[in-house]
Amino acid sequence: MAASMSTASETAFFLTAIAASAVLVLSGAFGLAGCLWISLFLYLALLFLAWRRFGEGRHPCFLFLAMLLLFQMGRLIGYALGATANPFDVVVAVLIPLHVSTAASEITLLLVLLSATCIYAVSAWNFTPITLHPGWEQSWLPACYVLFAVTFPFVLYKNFVYFQFIRSHGGYLSIFTDNEALANSAGSIVRIMSLVAANAFLLVFVIERRSGRLALITTVFLSTSVLDLAIGLRGKVFLFLITLWFLRNLKTGKGFRLGTLAIVGLAASFAAVAISGFREMRTASIAGPASFITGQGISMGVTQVAVQYRSLFAPHVTSYIGNEILQAFYPGSHFGQGQIFDNDISVFLNAAAFRQGYGTGSSYLAEAWIAGGLVSVIIVSILIGFMLRLLHSLGRTFIGAVAIGVLLPSVIYLPRAQLLSPIAASLKTALSLLLMIPALWLIRLLLYDPAPPENFIATSIAEPH
Prior knowledge:
Blueprint (H helix, E strand, L loop, with lengths): L1 H25 L5 H22 L6 H21 L21 H23 L16 H28 L5 H4 L1 H8 L1 H20 L3 H12 L2 H7 L2 H19 L5 H22 L9 H8 L2 H10 L1 H4 L3 H10 L14 H15 L8 H31 L3 H15 L8 H28 L7 H7 L3
């Protein structure tokens, strides 16, 4: 009861502060610069509160709020650190900065703050820390190791073929301009087996409790990420690493130490700039954390454009939402005008650049706004909060921890991704996971355990936690 009252009082405080700030802005007491500083202060206070409330960030909500800050308020942080003089200019995918109205920028900041507060309130209500303890799944570990060993070579081959294709077809942009040809270059069997290997590694990572072996198998699998980084898929790799870090904390009961987060963030900022230069086949200038954060904050421009030009995109919102699920099976280039918000906003910002492969991602805030304005943003944010609560509760069981490993990357990427992207991501992975169950059963039966083994799902349901 005390925790619930605390969450209610915290939520009331932030909502009151947001409402008071909005009144001051509307009355003209604060200009856009004042709105910027108030927004930064409130958001950073909320993020720190989330880190402390969730036991040093032991809840998916903390990671989500951190990503929301980076992608939707990164340019504001850059302004505060002196990395940019015009944080509200839309610079994503355009040759010349696009200026939106002051009202559109103020509404964007309001949406970010309201969304973050709603998500935190739902996630923090009756929060209890969770630790994943070893159980019945330990008997399946050898079978997972065998399946991983058999399929791992396919990951190496696929990544190498992709790397060769991309470097010989114009670099990173060929991922978007020749997506179908890129996928076909490795073949369907190789792609499927690579996905199986990734899922087998996830199972091993969740089950394995011996630190030495866990470090070894993780190093082996992450060695393939060198080619992913060389290709330019830095977001994919970094999200995967964050997910592994979260799962490790779930198993050990530890949290995200602020000092460690700062060191990792600093190293990641320099690495990201270097990777960006390599993937685009150019010399990358030396840039520090402030420039990196500013660059990542360009997704705020997507939300600003959606707010300013909602009438242009709103007629297609039904098509946008429906086709997002289909992107589990088709690349973005498969869809035409009025079918995918990413494509439409990229064409709106710079049609010529879009034809060459340049573009921008979406944002759950932008799509929620064009779907129904402020009310829609609040509803979507509350639903995201419930989704994050569900992910947290799933951490009690082995099957749930695997689900976290599958869903968490796409969920925390929502500030720069389509609203239904987690559903599309889960559809890609769920089928291969289901097909792996009989394969693991046969491996266990034939190689080292002649007795009929327990069923993954049935045992998980029967096992008390």
